[in-house]
Design a protein that fits this description.
Elements lengths: L1 E6 L9 E10 L2 E12 L3 E2 L4 E2 L3 H23 L6 H10 L8 H16 L6 H20 L9 H4 L2 H12 L1
Antiparallel strand pairs: 1-2, 2-3, 4-5
Helix pairs in contact: 3-4
């Protein structure tokens, strides 16, 4: 992941202030996001990514930089694949269930299911069927033209995808 703060002079308002944005690049995909801060373009140093004589804005940018890199680290620690879609989902919504991919959700389900086998609540035969289904799902996701395996489950899980998966498995 690369992160650059920049001031967009071309987007200056009538007041002469330009927005400070950050450019984030993940796996070759770039996105520009507003920081909701505006300054005179001439007071922004692109090399240092700081604003001359504006400690409050510089402190904010430093804190935001730290937050973004910490988020990347936390995603990795939590087993969430760092893609532009998942990163922006976590940035906007925090760490929620909708930040995980379908396969991550399935893996977590299987782990929880396996824990209940020792208690006698579930059977290993049923777990075996879930494991096979997850393998089919992984194969199915590879056949799709869009990159759904790295997108948050909440963004792509719908009735149409389930019908497509059913056809993939049974036909």
């Amino acid at each position: 992941m690369t992160l650059v703060f920049l001031c967009r002079a071309s987007k200056a308002g009538k007041d002469g202030l330009s927005p400070i944005e950050f450019s984030i690049t993940i796996n070759g995909r770039r996105k520009y996001v507003s920081t909701d801060r505006k300054v005179k373009a001439s007071s922004f140093n692109l090399r240092t990514q700081k604003v001359y004589n504006d400690k409050a804005t510089n402190d904010y940018l430093d804190a935001l930089r730290a937050k973004l890199f910490t988020q990347e680290t936390e995603m990795i620690k939590n087993g969430i694949e760092v893609t532009m879609d998942t990163f922006m989902d976590v940035y906007k919504n925090g760490f929620k269930a909708n930040s995980i991919t379908i396969l991550q959700l399935f893996r977590e389900h299987n782990k929880q299911f396996e824990k209940k086998i020792s208690n006698g609540v579930n059977t290993s035969t049923t777990l075996d069927k879930y494991v096979v289904t997850m393998e089919y799902l992984a194969s199915f996701l590879k056949t799709l033209k869009m990159d759904v395996k790295s997108q948050p489950a909440s963004a792509i899980l719908n009735a149409n995808l389930i019908k497509m998966f059913e056809k993939f498995v049974f036909w």
